[in-house]
Design brief:
With 100 residues, the chain is of the alpha+beta class. Helix content is 36%, strand content 33%. The protein contains 3 helices and 4 strands. Strands 2-3-1-4 form a 4-stranded antiparallel sheet. Helix 1 (16-31) packs antiparallel against helix 3. The longest helix has 16 residues, at 16-31. It is globular, with a radius of gyration of 13 Å. The relative contact order is 0.31.
Length: 100
């Protein structure tokens, strides 16, 4: 199994209300990929963070292997969500991939 963890920080220009809406859109869009992408075993987006956090949301995915993760990166359904719901609103992205 291969894990894919992403932490995002949203753009500072977004209001509290806009950030809540963006988070909900990212969660719905990414979690909606479940069952659509071969090798994607689990996908969860965490949007409720404690005040001690320095990121706004987290993506936690499990893939069957690294090849499935690489295929996910270019899968049209994933790219559509990333381009419409994630990239326009985030300013920092940190990624950690590892085998487990």
């Amino acid at each position: 199994m291969t894990k894919h963890i992403i932490l995002w920080t949203l753009q500072d220009s977004l209001s509290v209300e806009e950030k809540a809406s963006v988070k909900a859109g990212i969660k719905a869009g990414l979690e909606g990929l479940a069952g659509q992408i071969p090798g994607l075993v689990e996908i969860h987006v965490q949007t409720d963070c404690l005040p001690s956090s320095n990121a706004d949301l987290m993506l936690d995915c499990t893939f069957t292997d690294e090849a499935a993760l690489q295929a996910y990166a270019t899968h049209p359904a994933h790219v559509a969500v990333a381009n419409s719901k994630v990239r326009p609103y985030t300013r920092i992205r940190s990624c950690l991939d590892f085998d487990c």
